[in-house]
Every structure is written in C-alpha cells, then in structure tokens.
Amino acid sequence: MIHSKLPGVGTTIFTTMSQLANEYNAINLGQGFPDFAMDEALVEGVSKAMRDGMNQYTHMFGHPLLRKNIAAKVHTLYNYELHPDEHITITPGATYGIYTALTSILQPGDEVIVLEPAYDSYIPNIVINGATPVCIRMEPPNYAIPIQAIQAALNTKTKAIIINSPHNPTGSIVQEADWLAIQEILEPFPQVHIISDEVYEHLIFDGYAHQSVLKFPELAKKSFVVFSFGKTYHCTGWKLGYCIAPSHLMKEFKKVHQFNAFCCDTPKQVALADYILQTEPYTELGKDMQKRRDYLAKGLAGLPWTPISSHGSYFQCFSVGSAMSDKLFAEKLVKEAGVASIPVSAFYNKGDDFGIIRLCFAKKVETLDAAIERLVHWSRKTS
Ligand SMILES: Cc1ncc(COP(=O)(O)O)c(C=O)c1O
C-alpha cells in the first residue's frame, strides 16, 4: 500500500479525448502537435551526428556548442547576456524544466501562484513538492493578467508565480505593461521567483513581438525561463528544451537535474547546435502559423461560434454558445462531427466552465480542410 503523492490526479482530458478520437475515427485537433513534417535538414543533421559517433553521454548541462549558440541567440533576441556554462541547462523538454525549477526552490508549505486556465503539469508539479498551488482565474474573452488578484494572493509563503506567454490554451500574450506591473507588485516580496514558460516564443502573430521575461533585468534576476525545441522545430516528440536562470538559481536547478536526467539526447543536440544558427526557421514560424490560424477561423466563420482572439501558440479557442457543459459539447463533437477538441474547463483546477473549446491549428491544410468540412456539415445538420 502506498500513500499517493498525487491523489487527485486521474486520467487527463488529453488522453480521454485522444481515445475518443481514435474510437470515432475523428480528426484530432485536440492535442497540440503539428501533423506536418519537420525540416529534413535537421533530421539529416541528427543522422549525421549518429553516424559520426556522437552517441554517448554529453555534458550534464547540455552540449557545449549548443549552449554557446543559444546564448548568442538569446542575446540577439532579448538583449540578455548569459554565460553558457552558468546560466543554461538543456532539458528533456520544457515540462521537465518547469518541474526541475519548482523542485529546486520549493519546500513543503510554500505557495505557488498559478494563473488559470493553465498547462496541466503546473499544479501536480507543485503538489508533488509538498507546496500549495494558489489558483487565480483569468477570464474570457481577453484572459488578461489579473494583477490585482495576484497582488491580493501574494504573502510571505509565496515562493513562485508561473507565467505562460504565448498562452496555452487561450493564445493570449503578456505585454510589456504586464511584466512591469508584475515587477511592481513583486517588489515587497523578494522571495518570490518567476517560472516563465515561453515554449511558444516564436509562435506569435499579428505583428506582436514576444515579450520574454529576459527583457526585464529586474525580473530576469529572479526567473527560471523554459523553452522547447519541440514547439519551434515541429518535433514535439523529441522532448528537448532548455532552461535559463541566473547562477544562484541554476546552481540549484543543476543539482536536481544531475540526479534525474543527468543529460539529454546527444545526436539531437549536436544537430541543433548548427541548425539554430539559421534564423529563418523561427522568424518565419509565426507567419506560417498565423496563416493556419486564419484558415481555420475563416473555414468556421459560418458556425454559431465566437472565436477568442489568439495572438500566439498553436491554439484557437471558440465560445460555442451551448447550454451543455464544454466537456459534454466536446464529447458530442467528437462523436457526431468526428472532430476532437479540448474543453477549456479542463485547464481550470475546479473545472470552471465558460462554454469554450480549444482547437489546434498546427495542422496540414488538408487536415484543416477535412475538419472544417465535418464541422460545417455537422453544424448545418444540428441547427
Ligand atoms: C504551455 C506549455 N508548456 C510546456 C509544454 C511542454 O513542452 P515540452 O514538450 O518541451 O515538454 C507545453 C506543451 O504542450 C505547453 O503547451
């Protein structure tokens, strides 16, 4: 008999919806991953690295050349100076980076502020460390950062706040004014760290520039910032990313990492070390994804759904205006229309339901066409 560390965790909605999608042969716009091919040049780079014998453990913090080139990229993009040996660790995905950051700083009894709707790993990562998530609600249609509510929740037990921009599931983005307001309210609480989840840094639309926390020196001093190669290079299955933090935080992060993953996949790091020097793959990414977002929204314009503005990420949410719960609506959609989505209530700890579903538009045009056709047909039939 074991005493579960995560007694409240069951099967996630992602598993449930994917199972239903399989069962009903549905088009899966539920889970967030691209269904188109990644760049062949990067695949070739990995094969070459393997053929060249780069198949053993690499450095614990990550392949040195990859870290050096990340430092150069981060300096160019965010004007943040970092030392490749002190401030970066390559991680097996951003999720691992978030877990490791939280594990580095949390003690039982600490509190962590989570803005909901939230990526599903945050709360279990806090709970497993014996700390308490303090959930604060962001609301449709803007999902604005609720500065006053955050300020009211801050206290001497608060150890961290998790911020995600561009945001999953809503596509909202943090602006400069938000970071400055966060900086101001955190001033009386110097023990509070920021975990900034920036996995969609290059998936940003409508002419907005990504506001990394690294652009704000006062905040960067207290932040762990996580990134994901999977999101940027269409290879979510690689589960490879990195974390950036100042030396005193990264020192603790590395202690946890050393006895957990120790190091990550070598050939992929070798290939990425060269590949990330090319700017086009990430400067063009937002434009490409914006086209897919617009294609989906245009195709569904005739439905009685209201799109929630999405300025980033893989996702477009729709307010579906149904009397039933968003979960039941999503189930009905997969069974009757043959399209899988995710009900946004799944991203709230207490299942707050605003009648909104999330669709992933990071798909081939053929996939989007097929989903649009099914949804339009279903909508006509049911209206
Ligand atoms: C907000 C957010 N953070 C982190 C991740 C996970 O990134 P990775 O696959 O690199 O662990 C995801 C993936 O869906 C995400 O949406």
What does this structure look like?
The protein has 383 residues and is α/β, with parallel strands linked by helices. The chain has 2 domains: 13-31 and 284-382, Aspartate Aminotransferase, domain 1 (Alpha-Beta Complex), CATH 3.90.1150; 56-281, Type I PLP-dependent aspartate aminotransferase-like (Major domain) (Aspartate Aminotransferase, domain 2, 3-Layer(aba) Sandwich). Helix content is 40%, strand content 15%. Strand 3, helix 5 and strand 4 form a beta-alpha-beta unit. The mean pLDDT is 96. The structure holds pyridoxal-5'-phosphate (PLP).
CATH architecture term of the largest domain: 3-Layer(aba) Sandwich
Could you tell me the CATH topology label of the largest domain.
Aspartate Aminotransferase, domain 2
Structural class: alpha/beta
Bound molecules: pyridoxal-5'-phosphate
Extended strand count? 13
Number of helices: 15
Low-confidence stretches: none
Could you give the order of the helices and strands? HEHHEHEHEHEHEHEHEHHHHEEHEEEH
CATH class of the largest domain: Alpha Beta
In which order are the strands of the major sheet placed?
Answer: 2-8-7-6-5-3-4
Q: Write down the Rg.
A: 21 Å
Distance between the termini: 52 Å
Give the proportion of residues in helices: 25-40%
**Which range does the strand content fall in?**
5-15%
Layout of helices and strands:
Layout: H1 13-23, E1 27-28, H2 40-51, H3 64-78, E2 88-91, H4 94-105, E3 111-116, H5 122-127, E4 132-137, H6 147-153, E5 158-164, H7 176-186, E6 193-197, H8 217-220, E7 223-228, H9 229-232, E8 241-244, H10 247-258, H11 266-275, H12 280-283, H13 285-299, E9 306-308, E10 315-319, H14 326-337, E11 339-340, E12 342-343, E13 356-360, H15 365-382
Parallel strand pairs: 1-11, 3-4, 3-5, 5-6, 6-7
Antiparallel strand pairs: 2-8, 7-8, 9-10, 10-13, 12-13
Helix pairs in contact: 2-11, 3-11, 4-10, 13-15
The structure holds pyridoxal-5'-phosphate.
Pyridoxal-5'-phosphate (PLP) binds at residues 32, 93-95, 119, 164, 168, 197, 199, 228, 230, 236, 239, 241.
